[in-house]
Amino acid sequence: MTRPDVRSMSAEELCALMESMGEKKFRASQIFSWVHARRARSFGEMTDLSAALRARLAETCDLTVLSCEDRLVSKLDGTEKYLFALPDGNVIESVLMLYRYGASVCLSSQAGCRMGCSFCASTMNGLARNLTAGEMLEQIYRAGEISGKKIGHAVVMGSGEPLDNYDNLVRFLRLLSAPEGAGLSLRNVTVSTCGLVPEILRLAQEKFQITLALSLHAPNDDLRKKLMPVANKYPLADVLAACDAYFEATGRRVTYEYSLIRGVNDGPAEIRQLASLLRGKNCHVNLIPVNPVEEKTQAPTDPARAAQIKQELEKCGISATIRREMGRDIQGACGQLRRSWIQAEKREGGGGQ
Ligand code: SAH
Q1: pLDDT tens digits, 201-240
Q2: Quick check: is 334 catalytic?
Q3: Cα–Cα distance between 66 and 136 in angstroms, integer?
Q4: Closest-CA residue to 282 (of 253, 303, 240)
Q5: Which of 23, 80, 93, 135 is catalytic?
Q6: CA gap 86, 70 in Å, rounded
Q7: Can you give the pLDDT at residue 333?
């Protein structure tokens, strides 16, 4: 039987655990606060529990802790990138970005990814495994601790497809926003998906106040299928209908992400088609000049053309921004730090995946 991970447990589950150990229920709230507010890294630190209970917890339960294997800090804008090792030796990456409104962590939801988007480095070695809720939370906790910054925002836009790890994602969101824990407002959290229709509809019913970001990247099914294999499963019309349903259910404006790939999806015809798809929707478009990935030939749209695209969308009443590139000196595209680590492990015959 796998040992329960206290970092991933809800307050109710901790209550049940305490009862099963013959302890008083209020011990559960003490533990919850140690784990999520005080960010304890071991049961031994929980000094207001009896020594016997601490020992029993250490014997029977886990408390997920990530170890930081590498930290890169941008000299240009203070962006920090971390390579974290999971308890089983898999590695993931997370990024801390500094904005006017505070610090934000971009976190991974899976080790690797199985979605296969053609421009993305995270998917090149396939999916290793889903992350637990505790492993998602720890990325935020550790980034805060290492950087010394207070983290007020989180974006689930690192490696992995969050809706392909639905139950752990929902558990993570509940724990992250618990007032007795980290207490992050879900209005400050964005979850990005390649467009898994049934899970978008299910998420809409959870009525979280998160922002949903939909990776669109193409204005028609033919082109989208070339870039994103998931488009073979869910046609654009269904994806957009699911996003509309999300807005209806939550009142939260959906963000559409559109990676600008030179000569692929940035021509006048594609942009006209994009504008007609989104016209009249209460939405926002995030234009992302594509990040070159070493093994791929893709190039970003040049800045002048990107600015023109933004204007064209705005002329149609569609709000749009061009994503500012951060940490240019410390990273290639998302997933590349992890990928280079995996390649090095392979060369050295290490056990990495
Ligand atoms: N699986 C989720 C989260 C992935 S990463 C999703 O598909 O939305 C967040 C965003 O970065 C997605 O829109 C993804 O398509 C995009 N992305 C991935 N690789 C990129 C690259 N090399 N350049 C620009 N954007 C990229």
Answers
A1: 999 999 999 999 999 999 999 999 999 999 999 999 999 9
A2: yes
A3: 10
A4: 253
A5: 93
A6: 13
A7: 58
